Amino acid sequence: MSLLNVNNLTVSIEDDENLKEILHGVNIEIKKGETHVLMGPNGAGKSTLGYALMGNPRYVANSGEIIFDGKNIIDESADKRAKAGMFLSFQNPLEVPGLPLSSFIRNAVESVSGKRVKMMQFKKDLAKNMEVLNMDSEYANRALNVGFSGGEKKKAEILQLLMLSPKLAILDETDSGLDVDAVRTVSAGIKEYQKKKDGALLIITHSTRILESLKVDYTHIMVDGKIIKTGDASLVDEINEHGFEKYIQESK
Amino acid sequence: MKEKTYVEDINRSMYDFRNEDKDNFKIAAGLTPELVSQISKEKNDPAWMQNFRLQALQIYNQMEVPPWGPSIDGLDIDNIVTYVRPNTHMKTKWSEVPEDIKDTFEKLGIPQAERKSLAGVGAQYDSELVYHNVRDEVSQMGVVYTDLESAMHGEYADMIQKHFMKLVKPNDHKFAALHGAVWSGGSFVYVPKGVHLDIPLQSYFRLNAKGAGQFEHTLIIVDEGADLHFIEGCSAPKYNVANLHAGCVELYVGKNARLRYSTIENWSKNMYNLNTKRAVVEEGGRIEWVSGSFGSHVSYLYPMSILKGRGARMEFTGITFAGAGQNLDTGSKVVHAAPDTSSFINTKSISKGGGISTFRNAVVVSEKAKNAKAAVSCESLMLDDISRSDTVPAMDIRCADADVGHEARIGRISDDAVFYLMNRGISEEDAKAMIVSGFADNVSKELPLEYAVEMNNLIQLEMKGSIG
């Protein structure tokens, strides 16, 4: 059974009070444990798809369905989608002054699981996962993303991924702006998530570095708000060599 | 469509219970020389105080209501009962306090806090103190903590006459004059030279009577090299008529002494809170204000610090939360009157549901204040389109080598940040409450733990509305 089924999804954003359509009928199917890669030129609508799947109120779904775990969630708010098992790692994680990372994650874990977490166990899990990500334990007490470097912000996203163990993680350019070592560390975290939870992934990326250590099942190419080609892992290499030009021309 | 979460108005049931007015003594409403004399008589004032009150009343009658700030048209002093004596005398054991009054303070958690973490407690109910107690070891250190009324007749009578309303004179403004005429209750604290109190003293003010005014006077003298943390809490149940609070706080901080004055004010939303607080700080001394304003319909509150001696310092940390129907005008004023003085003002304000919050601030640096340093930072957070937040800074710098900085930021709660937190399974109202609590974090860090918890609860209540 498929975990995520997106059928003919169109999405608009508000632009000076007018609605501007960005996604023009997107179809995608992800099964449990699969890893999908979404590539495409800038402005193709990749991040829009991520936001729309997660229920950002600024992205209005005009038509289509988002079936997650057998249920159409298109009208659900973001917190309900998270509770259902979806997760979006932000390209630019937001800063929340005064909210310590660890208490935020604990709140999130309790919200998603609907259960109180035991403090001792939580601290142990957090410390273990921070170690996987090579994060200084001091970050646990710092305000969420405030003063974090780009790399630390992305690591904090993956830390949340590991702590929340969703069924599907959408990673929006998690590798952008990271140095080689940070990409490797983040990859290790993503691998851990796959292994531990048999978690499914939709990875939005421009580069291929983050994919090197991951087994990719499908690659989708999005141009101008539509998925115009779906292939296997080899498509990543092809894009790597030849770029998107061919696909941009085809879609015109 | 998307689920919409409404952020409702606060449920104040934890503060809103009220007791019947029974067996108490109430003066007639309004303000005349006869009424003021009657208060004097009821309170057994010394002669100088009787005269003081009548003079203050004269000043009150001559002065105009301030032409700036939120409207106080809803307040008619002819309808305010200025003196309400509860049906008891001041006790030093909770068990002797009448049941209904004791219940009130039990619900507010005062006796519990006293047992746990306070060196002394005063509890005022309407116009008079009903309970006052200090730990033995504290009084053995020579610390005096008592009601002002009995202190006026005891060994500190001269000290009180020398300091009472000398820092805030009745002609300061109309409501200072009113206070001088009808003040009742409050606390007198004296910390002798070199004495350090490690745990705080606390006064709690509860106004129960409908349509009444509370005019408590707090006079604190911290002598050379001494150290004190004083906490003030206030609340009242809501009535559909105006209540008035016009208290006055005078703080004398001696040479190299330190005083921390923390307030969590949560008056009900029919209250006019026209409060005056002022501190004078001698050489090397330090005043630290921590001020949380959550309640009242209208507030005018600008604690002022006069840095009189060389190297005197002040720090002001404040937060104001204006919800529906509230217009809270708060801030801080500092006067640098000596060299090497420094001040640091850090405030946050939150407005929601059409609430108006104004930060009014003044920094004065006199010619004598060479090397003075002043830094002001204020941040405002508006939670919706109908709320309002203003900043009114004033600077009067008369010394060329002063270092003065001002930073103001006004912003809306970020939809993206709310969405970000919701992405992790947190509901919209919890996400907003977390952002607001985080915004207030540097203030709660300054509060004693119990008060930080109370402040957080207040924020949660304000953000989430009806619970229970």
TrEMBL record, chain A:
Keywords, sorted A to Z: ATP-binding, Nucleotide-binding
SMART domains, A to Z: AAA (SM00382)
Gene3D superfamilies: P-loop containing nucleotide triphosphate hydrolases
Superkingdom field: Bacteria
InterPro entries named in the record: AAA+_ATPase, ABC_transporter-like_ATP-bd, ABC_transporter-like_CS, FeS-cluster_ATPase_SufC, P-loop_NTPase
Coiled coil: none
GO molecular function: ATP binding; ATP hydrolysis activity
Stored Pfam families: ABC_tran (PF00005)
Residue ranges of domain ABC transporter in the record: 4-249
Family as reported in the entry's similarity comment: Belongs to the ABC transporter superfamily. Ycf16 family.
PANTHER family, A to Z: ABC TRANSPORTER I FAMILY MEMBER 6, CHLOROPLASTIC
Name of the protein: Fe-S cluster assembly ATPase SufC
Biological source species: Lachnoanaerobaculum gingivalis
Taxonomic lineage from the root: Bacteria, Bacillati, Bacillota, Clostridia, Lachnospirales
Gene, per the UniProt record: sufC
